[in-house]
Structure formats: structure tokens, C-alpha cells
């Protein structure tokens, strides 16, 4: 071991964490309990490696998920950035900067992602085409598998091989051979989790060759014999205790009886011990238990009851031995196993053929799946010689490159991944460079073929310093001591190598690491039990309030508790602010074993007005809208299907009711339901017949569309024609339902982007997915930010929450896999049940029995670890929710563990198939001193006397839930009434303030920051009659207060189609005149040249012909004859016409009485023209206004006043733009042929 630096006083790490950060020179396994800060330790270790001079690309860091890899990179980046900022040594700072540059391409990823990197770099070592596509779409994968299997199956049927027919019959039924299909697919997937799938398959038949008999076989000796002997030896010990107790006066008959039974049990034990299996089996079958001879004496009653209890336990064990280990005699089992050998050989051959065919199909299409990545990477990393496997060029490169291989979540690695890691790490364990972090107590991914035995093996060996060293991080920095003590209490009694696969010893126990939580008695874990049995009550329960099942009861009980926490402002500690605060909905999470109750949760919590955030609101295929659409697609594919047809007719798509469906059936009882529909339609003319005719036309249309269009188009057409997409929005959880329908379209699109086509194949694919209980999509519901979260225990792994509710804890363990006709195990191979071809009866073979026992242990061990994950998610408050028939049944169930004399329960109790997580919790509580207040009979608490765990138990039934809901409703009414009264007292004042309120920036709201000069010009004019009229009516406001700062036109411009046959407006003539003056050449015009230009503009549709005729040509000739006109012609190169400008002014410069001096306006406009001379400018502007008395000075002065503001803005804008003063501003009145210089 290397020299670990001394830990500074101010370091927050524990001694074990400090060792995990700095220890090196050996393989290290860090067993990090829940909440022990393993990610922080891993990141710090990386940083310390970099400080030692390592480059980040010299480390391989493998994470379990892509999200974990992203988080790891982000944390390392933050730590490196901090190091760069704080480092004073320029060389070290440059090194850290280099690491930041290397970080984006560093090998911090999932193992799949790293394997992809290996393949892309070393593809030539295994002769693979480097141009490939990842097969990421599950639809395409499944359909490709089905396609390959269909071809293989047809070829096998064509060969008329008796062994293949026998294999099919053994695993299928009279209706289909789907059983064989499922077997081959499952065996293929399981085999691919091994480093050498072909070799693993080839060895499967070995366990069926019982050359030395069943008793000498490896499976019996290693798997069954130890269990049989342990159970019978327990019986022997029980009878020894019974014979000791049954001694003395008055117990002679009892003693004689138990002594006789004891001898029989010993004989059975001896026979099994010496492997005389037939004799042992016969003795076991002949073993009888006569009526128990108890003593009638009152003083001996206690002894009689004690002996009877032991005897009953022994009888159950004997029955269990027969049922679990020898359902048939050893000779029969041996015979059945040998008969199954040809089936296993054929199964292996067929699976290998499928594996080869699927691999070939993927190669032809240039695709790889995720499992291929690992196998191809392993091929690249190894070279096979005659005698051994050797490292390849690639392996040597990576072994040299990587100074350390770090693996996060090591407990979830499988055998194949372990093999890949071997060829990447240092093979010499004395120079080990593997750093593995994980917690075997949290290994809950067996469905991904994770193998926790890899972790356990190193955990045990490294404790003896064989191949490496282990470091245990037991301190939990997440949870309160109440949560930790409770978890320790349960698992010190439940978990050991027999069940759970690891000892829950002192090293495994959780220790509180975060001590800032305030002391509070309210944080003890609470067991919440719903009593399913309803008490008789004189009070009639409203129909709407009746709870349908125990799930609804548990959820209402949970919801009411959450409302109680929120309404009472239950205080929790906030680690960020370092102080207590009232609980919020976002602090609470509901953890469920599965997703099946999510829709019910959604509906009940909506009833209780509790906001939720949820993924996967339900099983996708169980959603009503999806079932309806699938039925319709099945019907379009083939209308002669009774169930889909009835489903669609009853659905909102058609909307028939049950009596109408019955009437249709009566129209033709002998044929299919579709024939009955046609018959009814042909013989009736009522409303129902009209509905059926309409639907028939729709169905014909969709069937035709399905033949010529895509499934995506078909679905959209169905949604459009039926309005179904809009309809579902109005149902409960409408957004979720609509998301489901959109997801179906997305899946259809993905399906058609693969190599598969057609409605038949798509329907077939969906049916396969339904059979496998897999969802097509996972639409997300996110209702509110401050919401209670809902997720599975699996999804919660690695997360933490202030308050946790563990739901559905009395759900029985799912051991469905053990009821199949086959079972797989990594080391034991495959076990099958053999069907007698004559009687069609299924029998267990020896391998099936052995693997079934091993799998049951593994499945229940994983359930135990799942419970550990669930309990350790809670930071502060833990609620465990379940249901029993009543309190008595709960106590009776838990009391099965009451008389156990050892701290850890017998495996037989823990491995009971029909049990639950709540039962296990109850077993752990029944002997605790806190439990005694709930019991009528005293139970020994000596084993747990020193436990500091605390907990409470509460019960609710339907009646109490209804009462609490009523109290809650009444409370809400009282609160609402109080709130309304309080609001009434301030409502009048509030209204008065609002009505009297004067907006301080009213002027700003009446203008805009971007205005044209033309608009401003209108505001400079006197108001017209309409405005005068409005101002007069607004008697409550002064004229100044009503001042407008933005011109608005009361009437919009008429569209051209309304302007036909109307007189030409003056505005149109003015616009045309301006256009003409802009485009006329600056030379002396003539009437002919002007008219020619006008016609040109008419042809270009710039001017309407009627308008052109109204243009005053003579006024234009007049202008160019004036002194100003001649001056423009003479200096045309210095004349600019129709010159746009923009200018930023303060508002009070534009509007004299504008109140907000800080406001600014952007003024824009177009100057008709200007003449630029050396040191000054001349601006001119044409107007075509009609003036009734042109000789009247007053009218001329009014026109000047009208345009003076506009022209002053022109003058200011041009002067600022060209940085020259404006000498003259000419207002040219064309209609009266006058030019006015407003600067004079």
C-alpha cells in the first residue's frame, strides 16, 4: 500500500473516504453504502490523479448510465476550473488547463460507448465494415428478429425433423408455437450476456447426462443436497428439543410419540447424508404424523403447546422437502432428465442457428445492436491461440495507455463486461490498477443480467487481501438517524449470504454522517396499514365514496396523510439554507414497485387536489384510447375479428350501446360478428342500421387507404375523421391520453423508417409487444413544478428525497419466472420441464429443480435489495404503506417470526414465495420492544433490546377514510368562508384604489417609441369635429389631460376590391403627383414628356389610370419654370429626392406638454427633396392640398401652420444628418401655384 497523505484538519472527508481517494498500487473495491458520497470520492480521486501529473485521457472511467457520465464530466470540469483559478504555479496551472481541453474527449462514458470507440478505431482486427448504423429502435430490432426467426422456423418445419417437432410440442400448445419462439428469444438474450455465447450454449446439455446417476451429479451435490440436508437437520434439531421438553411425569405418551417420529426423521437424514436417495425418498413418503398426544393437565399445558408448535414447524419442513426437492422419486427424475437431453440438444442447435442468422442479417443491413458492441469489442481485445486467449494489439495499447480503470456501480456489471474490463486493466494483481465503486446491497438490475456475485467475490477476497483491497464507506450523509436506525433494524435480521447474498454485519450497517438535523420526535418512520375488511356500519356509505379495492384504500390513506403534512406545515430541514422550513409538495416522492397503479394514483390525487409529477402514467397498452386504436387497426387489417370489432363498435368511434350490440348478434348467430353487422344492415333501416352503414363506409375507406398509404397517414386520417384525438382530451388525464395517441403515430413513423412495411406487420408487432408487456412509448406528464413526484424504486436509485412514501408494500413477490417451462442461470445453464408426449403432463427435471431453487433465492435476494434502495432514499421522513385484511391478520402474519431465537431469520421464512416486502418489514419489527404496545401476547425482545430504532404503526379502513375526507372537505369550506370574509373587508378599499388609480406613465402608453413624421403632423393639426365632439363629452377630464401623443386613424384604408366605381380621392392624386415628381428627369419638362411618364407609371401599375388623368400636369410645368425649379435643374447633381431619415428625439421636444422628459422617440420620414450647397441646404416639400380662397392670407397661414411642425422636423433631421445648416425650407403648394419659404 502506498503512503497516504495526512488528512488536513479542515477536510470534510472521513478517514475511509480519504483512503479511497489516495490509496493506489493495488486493485481497490470501495463498498459504498447508500448516501456515503461515492461520486464525490470518485471525482476527488480523479482530481488527485491529475494533480500527480496524470492526463485525463490516461484514465478510463466507466459509468452505468449516460446521465451519470455527464454528471461526472461536469463535476470534474468544475473541480478543474477551480484548480486553474486557485493555482499559483504556472506549470501546474498549464497542466490543469490542458486537462480542461482534453476533458470533452476523455474516456468518461458507459461501457457501451467506450466499446463503440474501440470498434471504430480497431475494426480492421476483426474484419468488420466500419460504416455501420446503431440499431437503437426497438421496433426495428424486434421485427428483424421476428423476420429471421420466421425464415428459420419455416426451414426447420420443412425438414420434418422429429426432434424439432418434439421441441415445439414441449414448449408450445395446440393454438400456436409462440412458446418456442419466446424460449429461443429469451435463451438468445441470456446467452449473449456471457463472454462466449456459443460455448455457453454448447455446455447446456452436460447437466442432462447423468452418467453416474442423479445422486453423484454436480447439480444435485452442489445445489440440492445442501438445502435438503439443512432442512432435515433442522427437523432433527427440533425433535431433539421436543424430546427434551417431553420428559417427566404426565408426558409419557407425548414423549413416546415424538421419540418415534424422531427416529424416522433421523433415518431420513442418514439416508440423505449417505446419498441413498431412493431409500430416503421412500422413507419420506412413508413418514406419517398421528394426532398429537398432548397432556390434559393444566400445569403441563405450556409445555404441550410449545412441543406442538415445534412439531407443526417440523411437519411443514418435511412437506416442503417433498414439494420443493422431490416432486417425483429420484429414479423418475433421473429418467425424466435423460429423456429431456435430446430436447436440450435440439434447443441449443436451434438457438445457435437463430444467433447465426440474426448476426448475418445485421451484417447484411450494416447495423449493430448494443449487445454487439460489447461482443465485438471483446473480440478486438483478444487473440485466440491453440492453448489460450492472449491480449491483442488493441488490448496492449489500452493497457499501456490507461494508468487506472475506474468503474462506477460495479455491482451492476455482468460477466461479459467483466471480461472486457479484464483486457483493459493491468493483469498482474500485484500491480493492480482497477478502482471499483458500488454497493451490492443496491444491485437491483437482474433483468439487465447484472451479476452481483462479481462484486461479492471481490468483497470477500479483498477482505483477505487476495487480489486487491477493499474499503468500506458506511457513513451516510443523506438521512436522519431515525431512517438509518430503522433500516439497520430491518436488514440486520433479513440479509445474509443465504438470502441477500451478503452479510449485513457491522461493516455494512449505516452510520449517520450528517449531524446538522435538529432533534425532533416527529421523524420516526411510520407504517401505514389499510384494513381491507369492512366493519359493519349503520351509516350508509354513498356509492361514490365506496373504495373499489385495497389499492384505492392505500392511495387515499397516503393522499390524506400528505394533505395533513402540508396543511399542518410540517417542518423539515433544508440543507441548502441550513434551517427548518414548512414542507412543500416537491419535497415528497411516492415510490412504487411497478407502474401499474400510476393512473389510479393520478385520479385519486386529483380528487384530493394534490399536484403530481409523473412519468408513465399507466401501462401504455392498457390505456383505453390505445386499446381502441389497436382494435381499429386490427379491424382494418382483417374485419372478421369479433373482439376488435365489438370493441370499436362500443367505443366512441361508433358509439353503440350494449343492447344494440345484442341486436346485431341476433341478426346472424351462426357466423362471425362482422357477418352479423352486414346482415343487420341489410335487413333493417333504423337508426342503428344508419350508424352501421356510416361506419362501414369509413372502414372501407380506411382499408383502401391502408393499401396505398403509410400507417402514419392512416392514423392521422382516423384521428381527423373520428375527432378521437380531440375527444380524449375531455377525459380524465386527457393530456396523457392525447400524448399516448401522438406516441402511437411516432411509433408508426419509426416502424416505417425501418426495413418493414405494411399494416399487417405493424399489427403483428404491436401484438408481440403486448404479449411481452412492453410499452411502445413513455409520454411524460409534468403537471406542476411544486408537485409530489411518482416513480418506481428502480428509477429512484441514486436519488434522495426529504419525505418518502413506499407504496404497495404488501404486493406479493413476482415469481412468475419460476412457473415457466424453462429457467436460466449463468453458471447452472438451462433447466426445462419435460412434457410426457402421451399424457401431456409436465415434470420437473433435475436441472430445472436446481435452477428454480437458485433463481428463487436470487429473485428474493433482489427484492430484499430493492427494499434497501427504497428505504435509503428518504432523507428525513419515511412512510411505508400496505394493506392487510385487518389488524389481526397483520399481527398473525408478522408473528411467524416472533419465536425465532437467532437474530437473522431462517432462510425458509425469508424465502416464502407468497410473501411481500411488508411481511419482511413486519418480521423485523415483531421482536422489537416498540412493537409490544401493539401486541396482545408478549414476545421476547431480548435480541433487539439494545436497538435504538423507533417507529409507529397506524391503521385506517374505508369508514375512517370517508370520515377524514369529510373533515377535509368541511375544513376547506370553513377556510373558504373565512377567506371570503377577510377579503370582503378589504375588497371595497381595493376596488376604490384600483378605480381611482392614475397610471403615472399614461403619456408613454399613448405614444410609441417609433413614429412617422406624417403621424406627428396629424397631431400638430387642430382636432377634427369627431375629436372635438369626444373631448366635449369627456367632461370629467381636462383637455390637457386628454392630450394624445399618437395619431390613430379611425377608418382603415379600403381594400381595392371595394374601391371600384368610386371617385378618385385627393390623397390618391397627391401620392401619384409625388411619385411623378420623384421620377421625372431634372430637366425642363413639357406636357408631352409628363404625360408620357405618367403612362409609363400606369403600365408599371405604379399609378392607377383614373388617378393619372387627375394629375395637374400644368402645376408641374409651372414649378419647373419658377426660380426654385430652375435652380434645381441647374444643380441637379446636388439634388436628392425622396430622401429617408431617422432621428432620435426626447419626447418633450416633439410634444410641448409631454410629462415624462426621460422618454425618447425614434422619428422617421421621407423628405421630398433638398439641394445641397457648399455650406448650407435648401429643403422643399410638395403639397397638393385644395385651398378654397388662395388669395385669403388667413387660409394660406392655416396651411403653413398645418405643415410647419412637420417641416421643422425635416429641417432638424437633415441638418443633423449632413452637419450643415438649413437656409430655406420651401413649402410648394402646387394646386394654387405658390411657394412659401417658412424660414423667412
TrEMBL record:
Pfam families reported for this sequence: PDDEXK_1, UvrD-helicase, UvrD_C
GO cellular component terms, A-Z: cytosol; DNA helicase complex
Keywords: ATP-binding, Coiled coil, DNA damage, DNA repair, DNA-binding, Exonuclease, Helicase, Hydrolase, Isomerase, Nuclease, Nucleotide-binding
InterPro entries with a match to the protein in the record: AddA, DNA_helicase_UvrD-like_C, DNA_helicase_UvrD/REP, P-loop_NTPase, PDDEXK-like_dom_sf, PDDEXK_AddAB-type, Restrct_endonuc-II-like, UvrD-like_ATP-bd
Binding site residues for ATP: 32-39
NCBIfam families in the record: addA_Gpos
Protein name: ATP-dependent helicase/nuclease subunit A
Native organism: Enterococcus faecium
Lineage, uppermost ranks: Bacteria, Bacillati, Bacillota, Bacilli, Lactobacillales
